[in-house]
What does this fold into?
Amino acid sequence: MRILSIDIGGTKFSAALFEDGRMIRRESRATDREGGPEWMLRQIESMVSGWGPFDRCGIGFGGPVDFATQRVALSTHVAGWGDFPVAERVAALFHVPITIDNDANTGALGEALHGAGRGFLPLFYMTLSTGIGGGIVSADGSVWRGADSWAGEIGHLTVRPDGPVCLCGARGCLERMCCGLWLERDYGKPARDLLADPEFVQRYVVDLALGLKAAIMLLNPARIVIGGGIAKTGEALFAPLRAELRRQVTDWSRARLDVVPAALGDDSVLWGAFALARPVSSIR
Ligand SMILES: [Zn+2]
It folds into this structure.
């Protein structure tokens, strides 16, 4: 079986072709933020035009997706996607079954079944980059989406009730305090430069751990996997983060604190969209 996997993000978009469970082709291009969905569909069509036939297609989208209706719920970072019927339109292009979910859920599935989460279910996955997203994979290997597809939105947990206003309209969200977009706006430097300073990291991990503590208390995951650009900081971030979590989650709780970086790098979403598109009987 050949499966096409697509990752639609605010800064770049990628596609990969999987055959018999292996990635045999992959390409990535920059997103034109002004282009909107019509531009993106034309780009995807031309990118994969020479790739030969495929049987199914999975899509990870960089924004909220209503899984039940397979439509984009709203677009906070890119214009023109609100209520756009992506699955319907891509199906009309390729004439194969399409499944779409947001990129945090898709990344979670990718890491759970093919990356750092293998053998560690239930899993909590957090993407830490321009924004912050989260995904929950249950013990049976399926994504837990909640009643309205809004489960796992760790980026909008309140960590500083009197903090600055987030893009969602609330104050002091984890995303407002810790994501790449706001770090750069607040401190005038890219996250990568800020996190090169160990003293900055010491302060940064306090809010980050407050968010993760909530996930640990609610879900008691077997492992937490963190992906996205900021997670590429590596042990200089993860060692202080684990220490801070150990401090915040007191010995009263016997929940394990197993926090590791994503193993699939920039391909977590592509692997997850591949897993999402597979027929249910062939999962795991
Ligand atoms: Zn928010």
